Amino acid sequence: MTEAIQVLERRFGLVPTKIDHHGKVIQVDGVDQCWTEMQQIRGKVIYHYQVRCGEDRFCLSEDAASGNWTMEAA
């Protein structure tokens, strides 16, 4: 299930390092993979980060146009 999140901190202005998920602050321990998805419909660009937070794995995604972030279990 995809859920909206807020990114609290980024490394190099790009890579999320701390997120807020329903009022719970989660530290990102590492990034396993990152990629850019470019959709031809409306020129939409989405940045994806596969991250580790303790023993959990998530895919964090940012809509470049709106700046909105989502998270789903990896």
Topology (elements, then pairings):
Layout lengths: L2 E9 L3 E7 L2 E4 L2 E10 L4 E10 L2 E8 L5 E5 L1
Antiparallel strand pairs: 1-2, 1-7, 2-3, 4-5, 5-6, 6-7
What does this structure look like?
The chain has 74 residues and is mainly β. It has one domain. Helix content is 0%, strand content 72%. The protein has no helices and 7 strands. Strands 3-2-1-7-6-5-4 form a 7-stranded antiparallel β-sheet, with no helix packed on it. A hairpin with a 5-residue loop joins strand 6 (56-63) and strand 7. It starts with a strand and ends with a strand.
Keywords:
single chain, 74 residues, mainly beta, seven-stranded antiparallel beta sheet, 7 strands, 72% strand
Summarize the structure.
The chain is mostly beta strands and 74 residues long. The protein is built from no helices and 7 strands.
How much of the sequence lies in strands comes to over 45%
Number of strands: 7
Which of globular, elongated, flat, extended, rod-shaped describes the shape? Answer: globular
Q: How many structural domains does the protein architecture include?
A: 1
Q: Which stretches are poorly predicted, pLDDT < 50 over at least 5 residues? A: none
How are helices and strands ordered from N to C? EEEEEEE
Structural class: mainly beta
Percent helix: under 10%
Count of discrete alpha- or pi-helical segments spanning 4 or more residues: 0
Main sheet summary: 7 strands, antiparallel
What value does the Rg take, in angstroms? 12 Å
